[in-house]
Specification:
Length: about 170
């Protein structure tokens, strides 16, 4: 559908640009990212190198954005991009801001990130009119159930025939 061909690159554009920017200038993103990377590194096996983590997030944004824009693995790409948004949204901690102007700016960025996540959720569940995994699993289950019922009926019929043959052979 033409809408997908237009909408996917439009949605992906911010991630491609942000990914390139993070890869080229990680030190510019590091101060804001430290709010997320330092606590995360202390609780996980991630390295305690904020610039490295900014670059990794940027690479994921660039790769996911490129895949989404080109329509290659769009559901996977959207899921990856949602993962890159979580730490980004957390850096816009408007709730901790006391200056009204700074608070409004951070709130706008936070809402933008949440809005992008909504678009990515739609892209992640878009099956392009093809049956999704849940539907195919349901059909497979129904097929197995029909096959089992048929096998059960055949087994009963065969057992009755065998019993009749045994009874006739004895007589």
């Amino acid at each position: 559908m033409i809408v997908r061909r237009i909408a996917r690159p439009m949605l992906a554009g911010i991630f491609i640009w942000g990914g390139i920017n993070a890869l080229r200038y990680p030190s510019a993103h590091a101060p804001a990212a430290e709010k997320v990377t330092k606590p995360l590194a202390s609780k996980t096996q991630l390295p305690d190198d904020t610039e490295l983590l900014v670059r990794a997030n940027g690479a994921a944004m660039l790769a996911g954005g490129a895949l989404l824009a080109t329509g290659k693995f769009p559901r996977l790409a959207s899921t990856v991009l949602m993962g890159t948004l979580a730490p980004t949204a957390a850096t816009h901690d408007f709730w901790a801001e006391s200056d009204p102007q700074a608070k409004a700016g951070k709130m706008t960025q936070f809402i933008k990130d949440i809005s992008l996540m909504g678009g990515l959720m739609l892209a992640a569940v878009d099956t392009e009119g093809k049956p999704g995994v849940a539907y195919r699993a349901k059909l497979a289950g129904q097929s197995v159930e029909r096959t089992a019922r048929s096998a059960r009926a055949t087994a009963r019929r065969e057992a009755k025939l065998a019993a009749l043959q045994a009874k006739n052979a004895v007589s």
